[in-house]
Amino acid sequence: MAPKIIHTEGESNISTERQAWNSKHPDAKTRDLLERDASAFLHQSLSSPCVSTIARAEGIWIEDTAGRRYMDFHGNSVHHIGYAHPRLIEAIKAQLDELSFSPRRFTNDTSVRLAEKLGEISPGDLNKVLFTTGGSDANEVALKIVRAATGRFKTLSFWDSFHGAGFGAASVGGEATFRSHQAGPLLPGTEHVAPFNCYHCAYGHSGPENCGLACAKMVEFVLEREGDVAAVIAEPMRAVPVVPPPGYWKTVQEACHRHGALLIMDEIPTGLGKTGRMFAFEHDDIIPDIVTLGKSLGGGILPIAAVIARRDLDVCGDFAIGHYTHEKNPVTARAALTTLDIIEEEGLVEQSAEHGARALSRLGEYKAKCSAIGDVRGRGLMFGIELVKDCDSREPNRELAERVYYRCLENGLSFKISGGNVLTLSPPLTIAEEDLENALSIVEAAISGEMAV
User: Fold this and answer.
1) Which tens digits make up the pLDDT trace of 1-41?
2) What's the CATH class of domain 28-81+348-451?
3) Torsion, Cα of 268, 270, 273, 278 (10° steps)
4) What's the pLDDT score for residue 135?
5) Residue 317: enclosing H or E segment and its boundaries?
6) Which run of H or E residues covers position 293?
C-alpha cells in the first residue's frame, strides 16, 4: 500500500501584500529564477517560495538580479562583519592553498588555534570545544554532553524558543513551526515553560518585573517537581527580540544549582557582539555551563558552529557525541578565526553597543509620538518594533506589520517580522552610523505612511 501523501496549500497561502510585491518584478530574469527555485526546491514554511533573488552581497548590501539594492537587516544572523569582508575572503583563499581539508582523526594547527581562541574569549572555565557544521547540531551535541554528565535525560526549555531544526533541537525548541504534528513525535522528556515576556508580562496583567521573576520561579517549580532534569537550555535574549528582566537568569541559574541541572546558553544568533557584549549572557552577570555558537562564526561565508563547555564536562571520551566529517575543517576554522580577529581588531562589539543605544533612543522617541507602536526593545544591534492596534491592549497589528515590511522593501531595506507583528532589525556590526540612521528613517516613514492609508 502506497504511503499517504499530505499536501500543503503552498502558493495559495501567499498574502495579498506578497502577491502585490511579486507583481512589481516585471523583469524576466527575476521571474524566471523565482519560478525555477519554486520548482526545484522542497517547499517549507519561512523560506520557500522565496521573496526575491540575490546576485551580489557586499557589506550591509544585497543586490538582486535586476540590480535593486537592499540594506540587509536580517541576514539570518550570519553577517556580523558584513558580507564579503575582503580580509576574510583573502584568508579563506590562502587557507585553500595551504590545507583544504583535514580528516577528523588528524588534527591541524588552524582548528586547534580556533578552539584555543574560543576558550580565551569565553569567561570562566568555558574552554573545552567541539565544532559542528551548524547550530542545530551544536545544540544536539550540548544535549548529549549534559545527559552523560548528569545521568539524566530530561530537559527544560521555553515555549517560543528556537534551537534548530533537527529532531533533538526542535524537541527542546518551542516554535510551533518546527513542532508540527505532521512530523510526528519528538524527543521524550523535553519539558517546556512560559518564557520571560509571557502573556502576562507583555500585556500588563501584572508588573513586568515581578511577573518576569515569577516566570523564573516557574523554572524552579518544574525542576523541583521533575527532580531529574539534566539541563535548562535557553536563549539568553530571545531573538524576537525580547530582553530578560533584571535578575531573571541569576534566579534560573541558582535554581539549576539547587536541583543538579546544568545551564546551556544558545548564543547562536546573539553571540559574538550582536548585543553589545561578546556574549549576550554577560549582560546578566552569569556564566553558563555550556555555550553554543554558530551562524556569524563563519563570517557570513562558511558554515561552522561550536560547543564550548566547562572543562570538567569533558566526560564523553568513550562514545561519539558529534563525529562530524568537517569537525576540524581547516578552511571553516580559518574563516572563524579571521572573523573573531576582525570583530576584536575593528572594535565591533563596542560599536554594536554604541550604535544600538542610539538606535533604541531614537526609536523610543518615535514611539512616544506613534500610537501604532506598543514596544521598542532590544540590546546592541538586535532590536524590535512591536506594532499594535491599541497601545493599552497591545493587540498585535499583523496587517500593518506586513504592509510596513513591503513598503520598506520597496525603499531598499530588508528585515524580518517576528511573531507576526514585531519588526526585527539586526544589521551587521560594521554598519556606518549614517546608514543606520537612513534605515531607521525608512522604517519610521513606512509606519507613518501606512497608518495614514
Assistant:
1) 444 433 333 344 567 776 677 677 668 888 899 999 999 99
2) alpha beta
3) -70
4) 96
5) none
6) strand 290-293
